[in-house]
Amino acid sequence: MPDLILAGIGWEPEIRGALTVVLGCTVLMGSVWLLLATNTGVRLGTLIALAGFFGWMFIMGLIWWMYGIGYVGDNPTWEGREIVVETATDAEIATEHVEQVSSNAGQPRAIDLVRDMGDEDVNAELDTVDEEEITARLTEANETLAVAAAESGIDDPRVLSDEQLAAAIDQAIDDANQRNEQLTLTQLKAVAPELIEEATDAGLIDPGVWRLVDAAEAGEAQTSATAVVLEEGVFDDSGEFIVVDTYQRGGKPRRDGDSIWSRVTNRIEKISMITHPTNYTVVQLQRTLDKPTVPGQAAPFAEPDPDSPIISVVMVRNLGNQRLQPALITFISLLLFSATCLALHQRDRRFGEAEAAFAAGA
User: Fold this and answer.
1) Is the pLDDT of residue 103 over 80?
2) Other residues' Cβ atoms within 10 Å of the Cβ of residue 232
């Protein structure tokens, strides 16, 4: 057994890394201790060196604790609690405080909101396909490949004929249109939050007790939900489904706006809450149509299967212990620094009393 352990340890990076750390500590800390020991004595020099070291560790631990950097614990993560199909009843949802899972069944399509309520800029960005740009881009790319193939004298299979080029252009335009049609409410909130707010005030969007999350905020939760469904075997590959929308509920209160008053009141409200309310997130997924792939060509555009149900992944926020380790280091270093300083103080006091007694006796 020891032979197996030694065989698994290599010079790079295990032994080299350990020797580098040991040598660095010996040279940097040892040189300071050696200077103190040769000038003040081994016992006093060691005490001064330890006091300086623990004082430095206290300051460093305080910085790690404040900014969440350095030697920290586990970061906050989303943990999968339950996977619910759209047809599930409330009795089948065992997660506490998750009585309902929002469904897309009663929500409007994002692209319809863009067309009915969006202004010219929003429509130009989200509901417009530049067919001329797509045609020019694909044609130029094909001509570049054709010129390179002619110069090299090699038959490049990527060079398309006129019929194939026309089909590729039609497919690219259709994919762009499909991409617009598949716009989700989560994506729309990221680019046009005022449109989502207007639709919510009008009663068109009613997520109930849940809050619609924009795409920028939902990235981590969507990645965690993808890992959960793959681990549970709901899907075999990430290309078999697409993310629809993401909803959040619970957690500490969020501020209403960006004004100074909103920021101050929200900060005070968060600080006054000793405990952390449970934070839930629901990420909705839907299976895509099975499209054949053509060798040498890009993968087909993912299109959701309209007959497949919405799958909701219920997740709970694990706050982790990111600042626990630096906090412990800070308190322990402070105690040890105080102890070494107290020892130095008592030594100086005893030395002073002995010096005063000697002077009085003389």
Assistant:
1) no
2) 11
CA-atom Rg of the chain in angstroms = 32
Helix axes 110-117, 193-201, angle to 10 degrees: 90
**Mean per-residue pLDDT of the chain:** 84
Mark 192-203 as b/e (b = at least 16 C-beta within 10 Å): beebbeebeeee
Domain layout of the chain by residue ranges: 2-73+323-361, 76-105+209-319, 108-205
Could you list the beta-strand ranges (E) of 208-322: 211-212, 241-250, 279-287, 311-318
Distance CA 257, CA 16 (A): 53
Enumerate the H helices of 205-259 as residue ranges. Answer: 215-231
Residue 357 DSSP SS3: helix
The residue among 161, 165, 159, 163 whose CA lies nearest residue 136 is: 165
268 has a pLDDT exceeding 50:
yes
